[in-house]
Amino acid sequence: MGILAVEGSMDRMEALLKDRQPIDVILLFAAEENDSSKIGEILKAGANPHIKGMNGKTALELTTKDEVKTMLKEAMAKVPA
User: Fold this and answer.
1) Tens-digit pLDDT profile for residues 9-41
2) Residue 77 burial (CB < 10 Å; 0-12/13-18/19+)?
3) How many CB atoms lie within 10 A of CB 9?
4) Widest CA span in the chain
5) Whole-prediction pTM value?
6) For the chain, how far is it from start to end, CA to CA, in angstroms?
7) Burial of 40 (0-12, 13-18, 19+ CB in 10 A)
8) What domains does the chain contain, in order, with CATH numbers?
9) At residue 58, what are phi and psi to the nearest 5 degrees?
10) How much is the mean pLDDT over the chain?
11) Residue 51 carries which DSSP code?
12) How far is CA 39 from CA 7, 11, 13, 51, in A?
């Protein structure tokens, strides 16, 4: 994921991991990148689509791609908040 190459991303990743599962953090990063194929895999692996990042936003709120939004909405409907 390209986001990890951005300066400061490692510190952000470490902060997110303090109270979140790694798979959920990866979901948040993939949502910011609008990576639909990764998000599909991550959701199948058990990521929580309701998890919020440090900014209080869910993956659904972070993505701008309609295809990804649809995937996340479907996942959120299947998993209780």
Assistant:
1) 777 777 777 888 889 989 998 999 999 999 999
2) exposed
3) 14
4) 35
5) 0.80
6) 27
7) middle
8) 2-75 (1.25.40.20)
9) -85, 170
10) 87
11) -
12) 23, 22, 17, 14
